[in-house]
Amino acid sequence: MTRATLVKDVAIKLAGTVAEQLIGREPNTGVGGDYEQSRDLIKRVALKGGLIPGISGALTDAQGEIVMNGKMHSAYDQFAEGVIIEATSMANAHLTAHWNEMVDVSRTLIQKGSISGKDYRAVVADAALKKRHYPYRPEMLKRALRRLDTHCTNLLMNESLE
Questions:
Q1: What's the number of CA atoms in the CB half-sphere (13 Å) around residue 70?
Q2: CB-hemisphere CA count at 13 Å for 10?
Q3: Would the pTM of this model clear 0.70, i.e. be above it?
Q4: When you count CB atoms within 10 A of the terminal residue's CB, does the N or C end of the chain come out lower?
């Protein structure tokens, strides 16, 4: 896996947290889970895959957990922080660029209680045609939408976007 692919995967994991921040929702326990999942992914991929400069490979203990010395911890923390900052920025840019699609899907969810895959694809395909200049990442929007419950969606639609 490349660093760019890792950043994209972490951006997807953080999309729910970023979506909540965009609507002004206070952080909740899901935020911690998103960051924990992101750091676990970074640790697994970066240390075992040799993505961190100056560190090649990683040792594991009997339980399969990665064992790090002080130098490795420091290099990992610096690398992970950089990936998380870049991934958060990517998620923010992507969700902001595709905010109208999120609102359209949210409206359908509120009206119908659910949205079919066909309806979801129709909403985002229509928007993607209008914005060919920006790559569309449906998995990022799906993760963000999962986090935005009906209360948040109503708040978003009634106060922020109307």
A1: 0
A2: 30
A3: no
A4: C
